[in-house]
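Worked problem 6 (solution included).
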Amino acid sequence: MNIPPSNYLKNFNLSNLNKIKALYKNYETWEKFDLNFLTHSSADPQVYKPDLKKTNYINVRLASNFKISNFKDSSSSNLLKKISANIKSSRLKIENTQIRIPINLNIYNSVYVPISKWPMLIAGNYRCIESSGLISIKEALFKNIEESRLIYNDVIKLCILIGAEEKNLINFETYLKAAKNLTAPSSVARAVHSGNQDFERVDKLILFIAEDKGMEIHKLKEIVKNFDQKSKLINN
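Solution. The predicted structure is:
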C-alpha cells in the first residue's frame, strides 16, 4: 500500500484532514484504529500483484528494503523486530542451494520514514501514462532528466518541511541510477490503463499536503490532472 492509512496522517500536523476523505474508500474505518497499534511502511514501486484474485500474492521485481516506522506499542514493536530478524535469517532452497531472500524489513523510530519514497512515486510512477499509452518508469525519468530532477527535489523539500530527516531520503542521482533497471510501467499506471477504478491517489494526497503547507511542486498539478483525465477517458 503506497498511500498511508488516513489515521496515520495525524502524525504529520496537517490541517483539515476531512478534505482527503474522497481519497479513501473506508476513511471512517481507519479513524477507528488506535495510533499506538498502527504503523506504515515506505512504498516499494517494484511490488505488484500478478493475480488480483489471489489474496496476499505479490511479486517483487527487485531486491527491496522496506522502511517501516516502529510501533508506539512496545509488544507490537517487539513482534515487528522478530519478523525483521526472521526475514534476514530465512533461506530459500532452490536446486539444493540455500538462497537468502533479497528483502529487508528495516525498522526506524520515525513516523516520517514511510514517506521516503514519495519523491520516486511522483517523479516516476505517476508519470508512466501518456496519450500514446504506457511508458516505463525509466522512460518517464530519462525523457527529461532536468524536469524529473525538479519534481523529485520539490517532493523531497515537502517531506523535509513536514518533518522528515534528509538522511532518510534518497537523493535524485542515486534514484536515477537505480531507475535504469525500472523497465516496466508502474502498477498505478497499469491499473488506470486497464480500466481499474481501484488505484491509489498518492499524487492527490501529496498535492493536498503541499497546498496545506503553502508549497508548489513542479508539474504536480499537471500529473494529477493527467491521471484524472486518463481515468475518466478509459472508464467511459
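Discussion: The radius of gyration is 18 Å.
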